[in-house]
Structure formats: structure tokens, C-alpha cells
């Protein structure tokens, strides 16, 4: 039985393997939007939790983010993002002084 000759695609080329990957254009657009619009109110609350600190601040930030975002992974990622933003803010303040 004969068949039609097809070209084999490498695993990385298949659309299902590319889905969700951040493109350069999307990254730039998100950076511009963040710069122009600033933080969402719940993100500001998470930043306040970082500033006040305390022993259970990590857990409180996680629980608050999970309540707003819905999933474990998203909450952890948001917490780490907010920590990075806070570190950048601190570094900027240190450079100004």
C-alpha cells in the first residue's frame, strides 16, 4: 500500500510545543503597558505585605494572591514577580541617594 510522502517535523516546530511561549513583541508590549498603567490595586496590597514583612508574610502574600488569581502556580508566580518589582524599587531608591 502506497502513501503520500510527508516531511517529518521536528518536535519543537509543532504548534502545541510553541503554544504559550513568550514572543519578543508580546514581552515589549507587556513592559510598556506595565510602565504606563502601573500596578493593579491587589498588586499594591501584595507590595504592602512585603514592606510590612513579618514572619508569615510569604504565606499571607501567597494566600492573598491565590484568592485573587485562582491557582497555585499563578499565585506563586505573582508573589515572585512582586518581590522582583520591590527589589527593583529598592535598588532605584538606593541609586538616587
Offer a concise description of the structure.
This protein has 97 residues and is mostly helical.
Characterization of this structure:
The protein has 97 residues and is mainly α. The N and C termini lie far apart (78 Å). It has a domain at 39-96: Arc Repressor Mutant, subunit A (Orthogonal Bundle), CATH 1.10.10. The protein has helices spanning 15-18, 24-37, 41-52, 57-69, 72-96. The protein contains five helices and no strands. This is 60S ribosomal protein L36. Keywords: Ribonucleoprotein, Ribosomal protein.
Give the topology.
Elements (H helix, E strand, L loop, with lengths): L14 H4 L5 H14 L3 H12 L4 H13 L2 H25 L1
Helix pairs in contact: 3-4, 3-5, 4-5
GO biological process, one term: translation
Pfam families: Ribosomal_L36e (PF01158)
Protein name: 60S ribosomal protein L36
- CATH level-4 homologous superfamily of one domain: Ribosomal protein L36
- Compute the number of strand runs: 0
Strand content: under 5%
- Assembly of the depicted chains: single chain
What share of residues is helical?
Answer: over 70%
Give the C-level CATH assignment of one domain. Answer: Mainly Alpha
Distance between the termini: 78 Å
Low-confidence regions: none
Mean pLDDT: 90
Biggest sheet architecture: none
The number of distinct helices, counting runs of at least 4 residues, comes to 5
Shape: elongated
H/E element sequence: HHHHH
Shape-level CATH architecture of one domain: Orthogonal Bundle
Which structural class should the secondary elements be placed in?
mainly alpha
Question: What is the radius of gyration?
Answer: 21 Å
CATH fold annotation of one domain: Arc Repressor Mutant, subunit A
Protein name: 60S ribosomal protein L36
Pfam families: Ribosomal_L36e
Keywords: Ribonucleoprotein, Ribosomal protein
GO biological process, one term: translation
Amino acid at each position: 500500500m502506497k502513501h503520500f510522502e510527508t516531511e517529518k517535523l521536528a518536535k519543537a516546530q509543532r504548534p502545541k510545543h510553541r503554544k504559550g511561549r513568550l514572543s519578543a513583541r508580546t514581552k515589549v508590549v507587556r513592559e510598556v503597558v506595565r510602565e504606563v498603567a502601573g500596578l493593579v490595586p491587589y498588586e499594591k496590597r501584595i507590595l504592602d505585605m512585603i514592606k510590612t514583612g513579618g514572619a508569615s508574610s510569604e504565606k499571607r502574600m501567597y494566600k492573598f494572591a491565590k484568592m485573587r488569581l485562582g491557582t497555585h502556580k499563578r499565585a506563586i508566580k505573582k508573589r515572585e514577580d512582586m518581590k522582583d518589582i520591590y527589589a527593583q524599587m529598592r535598588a532605584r531608591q538606593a541609586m538616587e541617594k
